[in-house]
Design goal:
This protein is of the alpha+beta class. The chain has 2 domains: 78 residues, 2,3-Dihydroxybiphenyl 1,2-Dioxygenase, domain 1 (Roll); 69 residues, 2,3-Dihydroxybiphenyl 1,2-Dioxygenase, domain 1 (Roll). Helix content is 18%, strand content 33%. It contains 3 helices and 10 strands. Strands 1, 2, 3, 4 and 5 form a 5-stranded mixed sheet that branches. Strands 6, 7, 8, 9 and 10 form a 5-stranded mixed sheet that branches. A hairpin with a 5-residue loop joins β9 and β10.
């Protein structure tokens, strides 16, 4: 059966309020309410993680892509760092921005740094555009694509 639409992209984060502020203040997202997912077996059954408990917030980015952020309170996370981009399970969200350097600089206020260097692309669908990965201190990664 074919996919009929994309609903959202979900990311587990260490600090839900801090990441929500970043998405709203730096990226221009609209935020829903932070809510506790009802405690019980449902989240554990959905995720395959017995005893899972989490809070969540839905954020709508310009262009109407929805991102769900989750902060689990149980069970305790086995890691404090997201996988590197080259590791299995590594993920990133690519965003078109007016200025890669300007957005990367604004993201510094929220603990993000450029992972490598800003690169100008010479070929492919984004030829002539700049691109950079920015990561926070826990490895949450965004790809910024746009003007210098």
């Amino acid at each position: 059966m074919p996919v009929t639409r994309t609903i959202h992209t979900g990311f587990t984060v260490l600090d839900l309020e801090a990441m929500q502020r970043f998405f709203v203040e730096c990226l221009g997202a609209r935020a829903g309410e932070i809510r506790q997912i009802p405690v019980g077996a449902t989240l554990g059954h959905i995720t395959g993680v017995p005893g899972a408990q989490a809070r969540t917030v839905m954020l709508t980015l310009p262009g109407d892509h929805v991102v769900e952020l989750l902060q689990y309170s149980a069970p305790h996370s086995a890691t404090t760092q997201a996988p590197r981009p080259c590791d299995i399970g590594g993920a990133h969200l690519a965003l078109e921005v007016d200025s890669v350097a300007g957005t990367a600089q604004a993201a510094q206020r929220f603990g993000f740094e450029i992972a490598g260097r800003v690169q100008s692309l010479s070929g492919g669908p984004f030829a002539g555009r700049c691109v950079a990965y920015v990561r926070d201190g826990h490895g949450f990664t965004l790809e910024l694509i746009g003007g210098p």
